[in-house]
Batch of 2 targets.
Target 1
Amino acid sequence: MTMVDLEADVAEILIDEEPLQVRIDELGREISADYEGRDLLLVGVLKGAIFFLADLMRRLTVPCEIDFMAISSYGDGTDSSGVVRILKDLDASIAGRDVLVVEDIIDSGLTLSYLMRSLTAREPASLEVCALLTKPERREIEIPVRYVGFDIPNKFVIGYGLDYAERYRNLPYIGVLRPEVVANST
Ligand code: IMP
Ligand code: MG
């Protein structure tokens, strides 16, 4: 599959490379100011958040570390199953740490709400969330999200780490997946 084939499945570009990077610059400055004098632990949620996390972390001017968690939510479909399971846990304890969870996208909120419960129980000094994208219309559970990159409409998006059935993560922008792609694969 070449990039040309990948792009054929994109209905529209929702957020292009440049506005993405401009917004991540702003988030980097805001987070650096908020955590000044503290030592930050970024928790990346695999796999979708890795592109965003890597770009965001390079903008932070406070000392920081990273750790990762992997959680199952959607399988290969486009809708939340409601079944959430930890596939990979953090390597180290977060007790007493300032933790910032970095997520690619918050849709129903079910995945993050489960994750926040699990992390809160480990007694971090502070726990906040930074999500590149959120779909406010789709929210089923209210979760306080301290930092949001972009609010987006209720469309299935791909690229910049976001996948459909593990594909399209390597597109450099956030695009809307053609609905036919989903229809033809189910
Ligand atoms: P939630 O539990 O419904 O909030 O789903 C969160 C997870 O579903 C995200 O971390 C993504 O992995 C995935 N997801 C939700 N919406 C999209 C989308 O539009 N494109 C790609 N993945 C999505
Ligand atoms: Mg996914």
Target 2
Amino acid sequence: MPTPSTQTINTELERQGEMLRQAQRIAKIGSWELDLGTGYLFWSDEVFRIFGLSPGQMEPSYEFFLNQIHPDDRDMVNTAYQTSLETRTPYRITHRLQDPETGEIRWVEEQCETDFGEDGKPLTSRGTVQDITESRAAELALAKSEATLHSILHANIEAILVADPQRRIRICSRGAELLFGLSLTEMADRSLDAFLPDAEQSRLADEIDRVLAGDPRVSGLQHPHGYRMRRATGEEFPAELTFTLNAAADERLVTIVIRDVSRQRSYEEALRLAMEKAEAGSRAKSAFLANMSHECRTPLNGMLGMIAIALSSDLPEASRRHLMIAKECGETLTNLISGVLDMSQIEEGKFTLKSEPFDLAAVVQRAIDLQRPAAAPKSLVLTSDVASSVADRYLGDEAAMQQILNNLVSNAVKFTESGAVGVLVSASPVDTRTDRLTIDVVDTGIGIAEAHRELIFGRFTQVDDSSTRIYGGSGLGLAIVKSLVEAKGGTVSLKSNPDSGSTFTLDIKLKRADGMPDE
Ligand code: ADP
């Protein structure tokens, strides 16, 4: 094999030297050598760069090196080196450099070993210095975020657990400690099953598996799951759990937030019982009113009957007048009792609406005819206008419809001193079998001020006491109308101007009974 020429050897050496320089630059590792006999210190190019200098910019020295070290780390580095010489052992330390001019800080890792002579004297130290500023920054960031996480969990009153796929607790908050009555160390590594009654364990295992598999139907704050849980004392309590998948790089964990809802549940239960009690009380009151009204009507009918018989006989004028007043009072009382009876039956839920064919136009006509005696002394014109679009027969509760219209038309007549009262009925088809009916009861009476328009649909409410004295009434009529109309799925509304009359409008959908046999 031919011996390589000096030139070839030099070229090869240069190439290897260049490769070493590049390798050091890329790895940010510099190398140095200190001759302890002469004090000569050699730095590779990369050491200069790590110290913020250009390669070969100056003659390095151990003192210069010490001066580049962060003042707080300087003694530690010097001691480490001196100890390694004394104990004849290599060392590896991490410390900071600080540019004396700019103040910029860099983290480096130093390694060093020393050759010793036969007499035990140190001859040459050599070592490496690696710039680890970036990885150190990442480490610090991680440590910071861990510290933040730790403080959040420690300060958190919410019970938060992080569990692995085997349901072992990895991390937990201070709130979990308080909720379950175990210390954080006692909770760590325990199975979640320890905090559940047996019957709940397999469900939790199943739901955690689904969370780990990424099933969105069980994860997230919008999907709370009701569980029974168990404290360390064995006491069970209702809880609401939310699961969130916590997919770290190398494992999947589940974050579980647990809310003790026992107080909320007991409030709900107390509220439910109070509601039940109140409803039972209200039902009992309605039942009592219904019974009383019924019981009052029988003797009242007897009294009215006797008055009618007495009135049909020959009587002195004064006695007739007295009996007429007694009759009117009796009739008012009958109306009042009927209203109370109807209202209490509606409230008691005893009022079931029938669905039978009936003639709406006839119902309207009857409501008007019924009021003729009351309208005659005031010379009121009573009219009805049923559009041709209105079918002959609809399916519904004729008696309820009659009562609604009787109440509205009798109010219209009662509160109108002159002019007219009219009922207008129109229909528009909703589908092949159903019509939407609009029934307006219009009067030219005293009207109703804006402030009273909502109130008058309440029970026992009238516009004012003086109107009661003038017009009489119980304040139940419109409450009954509203309840009946709403029971039919309809609405009742009012348009009115004081002094120029009122229009009550019913809006109800009814099925046509065309071609259906009468029942
Ligand atoms: P009542 O007529 O027995 O007093 P309602 O519930 O039927 O009870 O009516 C409540 C109140 O609404 C009436 O007292 C009256 O003040 C007012 N009201 C009802 N209808 C009319 C109307 N057509 N015009 C003027 N006021 C009316």
